[in-house]
Design a protein that fits this description.
Length: 413
């Protein structure tokens, strides 16, 4: 189970506390409890992220592949050096055969040497002729290696957002359960009153049935939400590497220091951000690779592949990326403004409910309101407080999406 410290306040006896990376583990009411902040959750999730291990494995494979290519390239260069030496020897032997002072036996020996040199030259030239293809493969592998490294950075940011988003989602889910529990208590009280009124003949059976249906509906919603909470919590614990038997307490998120730029400046930042920079560098590397390939094959023949196609595809991806980032930025900016307005509305509702609750207390003390009405006002006030906290969390989620896209990083909402 995950609790909110601010909402669920219980009297506990802490028998043991172990501090670790800002979070702490203790015992409360016979349960092992771990209190964490959103920063703790990020740190724990990163350490437990299995995809990082796969990425490191792929990077190692890529490095090994490049190492093998370099070895093959060195061998090819060695054979080319041998081929040049053998060619010089061949020309020297041919020159000796033109000497008329040599005897037939001497010329025959020279011809035998020449045959041996030409045979070695043929095999050595064949071994050394793959140099250009090896250079092609090496440059391609280095481009792929850099893309893997760049994507690792982007995926890291997306992973962080996913952890933050789930953390805040759990805060909201827990509050919604608390709100529904309050609604459940209200409908339960109303049902009991309706039963009493019906037994006294002050209400119809139809009203009682209608109230009973509403009560069952709220009870069913509460049960489903708690089942959903259990599933979500267990999944989140696995992501963080926390045992199922440990109860997590999530600290509320701080909203201090949240600022965002104007629309035009933010869009400019997004279109020159990390993803665009990576795409532009890929194009630059592919352009350099194309120049090298053209230098290796000046007549355009014997190319193992056409790098021009890869370059065009990289340019198309850049254009698509710019369009996607611009669209994502517009959506995130509008969503941020909307969530900001929702906080203002939630604050107004909260302040109104608070004043009504305070007024009901006053009216109760002078006998103008029943305790049941006061309790209802109190529950409404507490519910509006939960709605305000949820609105703030939704705003924080929208802000984080905006913050990422302003850096040129698109995340899944």
């Amino acid at each position: 189970m995950i609790r909110l410290r601010k909402i669920s306040i219980v009297t506990v006896l802490i028998l043991s506390i172990i501090f670790s990376s800002g979070s702490f583990i203790g015992f409360a009411n016979g349960k092992v409890v771990k209190t964490i902040t959103i920063e703790n959750a990020l740190e724990m999730a990163r350490k437990n992220n299995a995809s990082i291990k796969y990425t490191e494995l792929n990077k190692d494979k890529m490095a090994n592949n490049i190492g093998n290519l370099l070895t093959s390239l060195n061998n090819s260069a060695y054979h080319l050096t041998q081929a040049i030496e053998l060619e010089n020897t061949r020309l020297n032997l041919i020159s000796k055969l033109e000497d008329e002072s040599l005897t037939s036996l001497q010329k025959e020996n020279i011809r035998d040497q020449l045959s041996q040199v030409e045979a070695l030259l043929s095999s050595t030239t064949t071994l050394g002729s793959s140099t250009n293809q090896l250079l092609d493969s090496l440059e391609q592998s280095r481009i792929s290696q850099q893309m893997l490294i760049d994507n690792e950075v982007l995926e890291g940011h997306k992973f962080d957002y996913s952890i933050e988003n789930q953390y805040i989602g759990l805060l909201i889910l827990n509050r919604n359960i608390i709100k529904l529990e309050k609604n459940y208590e209200i409908t339960k009280q109303v049902l009991e009153i309706e039963r009493l009124k019906q037994s006294l003949g002050l209400s119809s059976l139809l009203n009682l049935e209608d109230t009973f249906l509403r009560f069952n509906h709220v009870a069913s919603q509460l049960k489903q939400l708690k089942l959903q909470q259990e599933v979500v919590i267990n999944n989140y614990k696995k992501i963080l590497g926390v045992s199922e038997g440990i109860e997590l307490i999530l600290e509320p998120v701080s909203y201090s220091g949240i600022k965002y730029t104007n629309y035009t400046e933010g869009l400019k930042n997004a279109l020159s951000g990390r993803s665009i920079q990576i795409a532009e560098k890929e194009i630059q590397r592919r352009e350099e690779h194309l120049i090298n390939v053209n230098d290796r094959y000046p007549d355009g023949t014997n190319k193992s592949y056409n790098p021009q196609v890869d370059l065009r595809e990289a340019k198309y991806r850049l254009e698509d990326l710019k369009n996607s980032i611009e669209m994502s930025y517009k959506l995130s900016y509008n969503d941020l403004i909307q969530k900001e307005n929702e906080i203002k509305l939630a604050e107004q509702s909260y302040n109104t409910a608070k004043r009504l609750y305070e007024l009901s207390q006053l009216r109760y003390t002078i006998g103008l309101m029943s305790i049941v009405e006061v309790d209802n006002r109190k529950i409404d006030y507490e519910t509006k407080e939960i709605d305000l906290e949820n609105a703030k969390d939704e705003y924080y989620k929208a802000y984080r999406v905006y913050e990422y896209i302003q850096k040129g990083i698109m995340v899944n909402r």
